[in-house]
Design goal:
With 231 residues, the protein is α/β, with parallel strands linked by helices. It has one domain (7-217): HUPs (Rossmann fold, 3-Layer(aba) Sandwich). It has 6 helices and 5 strands, in the order E-H-E-H-E-H-E-H-E-H-H. The chain has a 5-stranded parallel sheet with strand order 3-2-1-4-5, sandwiched between helices. Strand 2, helix 2 and strand 3 (61-66) form a beta-alpha-beta unit. Helix 1 (17-28) packs across helix 5. The radius of gyration is 17 Å and the shape is globular. The protein starts with 6 loop residues before the first strand and ends in a 14-residue tail after the last helix.
Length: 231
């Protein structure tokens, strides 16, 4: 278990491989961690179980912000509404149905409020380059603009050096896997699949990206997939 440091980070951790790797990276850098998961009314909450497990392993504080009632207002997304989860690559046009409007901005706003209250040094998010195809609130321009906006939003409150940290924003998912393997991230205990079944479906975009990342990184994929011949 890592030694809790004097620096504190509030990290948004969904339980997926990117955000769990982020937590392990911050722990390795000496941060005391408060992991924050968000229940925004997503169709399944299985991933949050893995976020809690990550916190337990790292000796981190863990909280779930429940804003589930907002899910019915963010209609039209395959992640919050009765819309079929699309299969294929993130670059495909049908992946637009997986967009939850303004999701990262909403989650980061909550995280900043927590960070101010806790006197944290940074707010951390695991967005990466593979998200850039379809998710505008995962792109470098968004991260830069949101960080600047939040400096104004919390000016005079909290730690004066509080900043937004997105270390993977220019990384591929394979880069994340490579780093996670070095840090000893237990990827079997992370959840990516949009379907929320007993096992990863192996067909949705996030499963495909997960499979590809392990292959490119040359790291054994411990995930069990429902699709025959995958994993």
């Amino acid at each position: 278990m890592p030694v809790r440091g004097s620096k504190k980070a509030v990290a948004i951790v969904s339980g997926g491989m990117d955000s769990v790797t982020l937590a392990y990276l911050l722990a390795s850098e000496g941060f005391s961690l408060q992991l924050l998961s968000i229940n925004y009314g997503q169709r399944h909450l299985k991933e949050l179980e893995y976020a809690k497990l990550c916190a337990e392993r790292l000796g981190a504080e863990f909280d779930v912000a429940d804003i589930s009632s907002i899910g019915r207002l963010l209609k039209g997304s395959a992640l919050t509404d009765d819309v079929p989860v699309p299969h294929g690559h993130y670059a495909a046009l049908n992946m637009a149905t997986t967009v939850v409007p303004n999701r990262n901005a909403i989650m980061l706003s909550i995280a900043y409020g927590v960070a101010v209250a806790e006197g944290a040094d940074l707010v951390a998010t695991g967005v990466h380059a593979g998200d850039h195809f379809v998710y505008p609130d995962c792109r470098p321009e968004f991260i830069e603009a949101f960080g600047a906006m939040q400096k104004k939003a919390v000016e005079g409150f909290g730690d004066a050096s509080l900043r937004l940290h997105a270390p993977f924003v220019e990384w591929s998912k394979a880069d994340i896997v490579t780093t996670g393997a070095r840090l000893g991230v237990p990827y079997a205990d992370t959840w990516s699949c949009y379907e929320g079944g007993e096992f990863h479906c192996g067909l949705c975009a996030t499963c495909g990206e997960r499979i590809e990342a392990f292959q490119i990184a040359g790291v054994r994929d411990p995930t069990v997939y429902e699709s025959v011949g995958v994993g």
